[in-house]
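Entry 14. Structure prediction run on the chain below.
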Amino acid sequence: MKVWIKYLIGIALGVLAAFLLPTDDAAFLGFISFLSELFIRMGRYIVLPLVFFTAIVSVNNLRKSNLMLRTAVWTIAIIILSSLLLTLVGIVSILLVKLPRIPITVDVATQVQKINVTGMILSLFPESAFSAILEGSFLLVPLVLAFLVGWESASEELTFKPLYSFADSAAKLFYNITNFATEVLAVFAVIITCCWVVRFSDVIAPGIYTPMILMFLVDFVIVVGIIYPLVLFFVCHDKHPYRVLYASLASLMFSFFTADSNITLPLNYRHARESLGIRRRTRGFTYPLFSIFARGGSALTASVSFILIWRSYSSLTMPLSDILWIFVLSFALSFLLGGLPTGGAFILLTILCDKYARGFETSFLLLQPASMIMCSFAAMFDTATAMFGSYIVSVKTKTIEHHTIQHFI
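Output returned:
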């Protein structure tokens, strides 16, 4: 059975369970929420060692094959361009379609979330290099150490061959564990989806946020169903661009219900190798970087949400200067969300409201009940970017062995 079908069955059973189980009971709902959080944490368990050891081998092979610069340039370019594209799609869609206003509620003073840029920079180089391996959320910290080890181990192959062999064996070991973990996560998806649907039903019941949700859905269909395949067709000359979307189905579904940009990495790695045929030297380098920096989905959802809030407070037309300000700030801040695998979209919205000022400092509270929807769509956009972006890099660096769609897992 295909992996995406297993996840689809798990999600469908989770939706069904949300309507059949006594979720109105507070004690039972608390138990379901506990299991959901437990299973999500178990899913994150394999991410760090898989990324760390695979990155060492990837960087080592990229340096030895003289592909590091080319791979890095393509990866950085796609990250920047995809974030620009997604932010632009969000701004254009909310300007073209005037969504109904959200009823104004009494703002309650709350602490505005901040992004500690200096702290993030300092965390890249902890007091002990071994401390970097313990960092589980901000993947750039262990990735820097993996890059240093992988790069230097390629300088003298004979001297550092034992180290490379160990990293290679560890990467293969954790990949095999990943295969088992992704199968188990399809079962866990039942509880995770059940918990998500219960929370979603409370959000959508009043109907206030339904137009916004539909806009996110339409934007996603346009980006993933039209724009990204067209990019593959023209940039990679791929006559079957939708096979990348087909290979991404399980990751897209799971990222939506977990709203986590890191937890889907094991699924991405597996489909990259067994479905798309992307070699380890590329996927071990590109996927973590996309997960950390390609957060255009958060920029899209945050910009749409902010303009919706602005229109809810004012009947005037938003000045062009303010629109440009929202576009630039959303785009720029999206690159600083790497330490926030979950909740980054809503935190970006709180920062936009705080920086805009003019009485909007706490206006994000209008969308606080719908924050889970924002973050779910943001994670799905970012997962699609990682899958399509890594595929483009592998094609342009010729580190891919195309598989027929019949052999996709």
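The longest helix spans residues 161-204.
Filed with the rest of this week's runs.
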